[in-house]
Amino acid sequence: MSSYIALIHKDADSDYGVSFPDLPGCVTAGTDLDDARAMAAEALALHLAGMAEEGEAIPEPSSLETVMADPENRDGVAILVQAPARARKIVRVNITLAEDELAAIDAKAEAAGMTRSGFLARAARALEAA
Questions:
Q1: Considering its fold, how many domains does the chain have in total?
Q2: Locate the HicB-like antitoxin of toxin-antitoxin system domain: which residues (predicted)?
């Protein structure tokens, strides 16, 4: 199994944002560092599964030196995130919601730096754990 470097960023009055320099568009956030690490693992798994499903080439992970050589990455804290041995199957679904409910979901997801799908999956896991 390979590991990808994720960068954790924290601005005042925000959650901990996580991005993957090797995987543009693979971003997430967490309310604290532990949550950010957990969300990073989930985001990586979902992103890689989506790439595989679309037939996209999955890049080899860059070294820490290569990632940190980019000046744009130097303000983040680097962590290693293990790529899953086998990605979970992603299933596309069609749901029906009231327009205002969908707008509220999208606003919360955007504020958390997440996709709609990632936000709904996280909410389902939170309810399951409660």
A1: 1
A2: 4-124
CA pair distance 103, 125, nearest whole angstrom: 21
21-78, pLDDT tens digit by residue?
Answer: 999 999 999 999 999 999 999 999 999 988 887 788 888 999 999 999 999 999 999 9
* Residue-number span of the structural domain to which 25 is assigned: 3-91
Helices (H), the chain: 33-53, 64-69, 99-111, 116-129
Q: How far is CA 6 from CA 22, 48, 50, 82, 107, in A?
A: 9, 14, 18, 10, 25
CATH code of the domain in which 34 resides: 3.30.160.250
